[in-house]
Design brief:
Elements: H1 3-21, E1 26-27, H2 28-35, H3 39-51, E2 56-58, E3 65-68, H4 81-97, H5 100-103, H6 106-114, H7 119-125, E4 132-134, H8 140-143, H9 151-163, E5 165-172, E6 178-191, E7 194-201, E8 206-211, E9 215-224
Parallel strand pairs: 4-6
Antiparallel strand pairs: 1-3, 2-3, 5-6, 5-9, 6-7, 7-8
Helix pairs in contact: 1-3, 2-3, 4-9
Length: about 240
């Protein structure tokens, strides 16, 4: 095939790929006319894309419509590191809730997600389920004081939690007092819609509970910590009917 013909085909393949991804209604005859080639030539181009992994469906009969199968793109899904961490924590919450509706494909999703992490990360991630508790819905009074937490806080917090890294926070207490302190985020407690951190407070040298929506600012520190047993935090959980793993 002459060089010019090769370049023309490559250009057609790029255009055809883009048009298919745009989910436009495409008719082979009309598309061939638009590109200045015969329907037979365009059919060869379509076959090349199929061989490259594009699940192209074709309508039979007059017109010859083509489209990508509805499932295309699921295998192309790419998550950022922070998105993957957020998803793992969400999966852990669903596992704690043990809802049959949510459990159907949970394990396969988790397995595929885990496969994308290093061996070191898998070791840390494997502990997540045992470090999350789910309890009853927060009272109307507590919900009335709730504001969605800042994403700039939750993303580094989730990473610090999973990697067992100390976390520096600027925290606004119920009284309105604002303090800066370094904490070890050992366990997470979810009382819809509010997340709490069960932490070791390095300033107080004691167990403390922090509402995530009251953290004004947070930064991951280099210092790591060894996970404390949940029994160290049981006093903070007195009177709370939480699901245990």
């Amino acid at each position: 095939m002459a060089k010019g013909n090769v370049n023309d085909r490559l250009q057609r393949l790029d255009i055809l790929s883009a048009r298919l991804k745009a989910d436009e209604p495409l008719i082979v005859r009309e598309l061939a006319q638009e590109m200045g080639v015969s329907p037979r030539t365009l059919s060869r181009d379509i076959q090349i894309l199929r061989e490259r992994g594009y699940p192209i469906e074709a309508d039979r009969g007059r017109g010859g419509g083509i489209r990508l199968h509805w499932s295309w793109g699921l295998g192309q899904l790419k998550l950022s590191y922070s998105e993957a961490i957020d998803l793992l924590i969400s999966l852990a919450v669903m596992e704690q809730m043990k809802s049959p509706l949510l459990m159907a494909n949970l394990q396969s999703v988790k397995t595929k997600l885990m496969a994308s992490f290093s061996m070191e990360m898998k070791h840390s991630i494997g502990k997540i389920n045992g470090r999350i508790r789910v309890t009853e819905t927060a009272s109307p009074f507590v919900q009335g004081t709730y504001l969605p937490p800042d994403e700039k806080v939750t993303k580094p917090l989730h990473q610090a939690f999973v990697l067992q890294r100390c976390f520096r926070i600027c925290y606004k207490a119920e009284t309105g007092e604002i303090t800066d302190r370094a904490i070890e985020p050992h366990y997470l407690l979810f009382s819809y819609p509010i997340w709490y951190i069960l932490a070791w407070d390095q300033l107080r040298q004691d167990v403390r509970t922090f509402r995530c929506d009251r953290i004004l600012k947070g930064d991951i520190l280099e210092e790591t910590y060894r996970l404390r047993p949940f029994t160290d935090f049981e006093k903070a959980m007195e009177g709370v009917n939480a699901i245990r793993p």
